[in-house]
Amino acid sequence: MDHFEYRNGQLFAEDVAVADIAHAHGTPCYIYSRATLERHWHAFNDAFGTQPHLVCYAVKANSNIAILNLFARLGSGFDIVSGGELERVLRAGGDPDKVVFSGVGKKAVEIRHALEVGIRCFNVESEAELDRINAVAGEMGKVAPVSLRVNPDVDAQTHPYISTGLKENKFGIEIGRAEAVYLKAAAMPNLKVVGIDCHIGSQLLTLTPFMDALQRVLALAERLAEQGVQVHHLDIGGGLGVRYKHDQLAPSPADYMANLFTDERLRQYEIFVEPGRAIAANAGILVTEVEFLKMAEYKNFAVVDAAMNDLIRPALYSAWQEIIPVVPRSEGKTETYDVVGPVCETGDFLGKERDLNIQPGDLLAVRSSGAYGFTMASNYNTRPRALEVMVDGSAMHVIRQRETFEDLVRGEAILP
Ligand SMILES: Cc1ncc(COP(=O)(O)O)c(C=O)c1O
Ligand SMILES: N[C@@H](CCCC[NH3+])C(=O)O
Predict the structure, then answer these.
(1) For the whole model, what pTM was predicted?
(2) For the chain, what is the largest distance between any 2 Cα atoms, rounded to a whole number of angstroms?
(3) Which of 143, 183, 313, 338 is buried most deeply by CB count within 10 Å?
(4) Coil, helix or strand at residue 272
(5) Which residues are marked as active site?
(6) Which domains does the chain have, with CATH numbers?
């Protein structure tokens, strides 16, 4: 988190005062640190040492083209889940040969485009999808590289909405059936089996579930090899958690890899990893202005100009993110507030019961907002989505303009 810190009594993003950005461009605005994004990417990449590997940044965490471009320049791969995300990667200068395509509902048109540009691998999530990819590749006279996303039935010990590796979750092919499906895939004329993929959930703060899943994947790879299906890579997914609270402990990418590589069998494969949150979350903040303070008998509310349409994690997962003043006051009184937005929903809050010394017009920063912040934003209540800024040393760049009212109604038509 170190590129967002207090200096001379106010919050800085690298060498730029956050208040200066807010005053220049308005609020709500997302601010990202280039140095932090790159440092986090390198932490994953370096954790592999000399092991053949590919860091496939999970585009869904933060898909701004400027951010994807930074990773593309570093030689990153990308994990995508839609044709739209593929388009972003290509526009950002990403190498299609380093793209893996996950997701349970790939449409034929998306598969076709991915085959046209030549992605590295489809992470196939069902037998029906396998048939569809085989058919589309056949029509195009191509051979599609595939891995099966297996569901290892491991409890990721995270929020139920972001757990993906249990048999009741919609993701992947149950590991008990995987062998049969692999044999079927290997016999299909327009497919080439290249790997095994597994992603068990997001915001994992302990390493045991990753290791449990890996053991099952390695055993599957061995059983497949015995039957003549040799995979080249293992994709271990994303999911490494981050620190949202000061007292939270999150394993580093180096700890994570060191733990996995205690199993030497891993070394014979190229290893893909798909981190999103661990790279982007703590590289961004959401800055908002206090509009009104509403002091009531039962509760105090700080009504701010960012809302659940800008950052939905608190409403959706009861997620806790730190909220801090951009320019802390030296005088005045600290009160306990629910920090709420202007959207007409009771669930529209950014934080509950926060002790803050604030006045209307003050700026607040919601930390750890670089991942699943802007990408999950909506136009609910016909609110424009926030502006995005990238700080790079002492420079700031607007990397996405705030939406205008014109943007908000684009494409709509009234009856003749
Ligand atoms: C298939 C897949 N890969 C990677 C990710 C990225 O996860 P995270 O942001 O937790 O690293 C996700 C999201 O959970 C995912 O569904
Ligand atoms: N969007 C979630 C994570 C889901 C990861 C995508 N599979 C979050 O904000 O925590």
Answers:
(1) 0.97
(2) 73
(3) 313
(4) strand
(5) 344
(6) 4-32+281-409 (2.40.37.10), 34-278 (3.20.20.10)
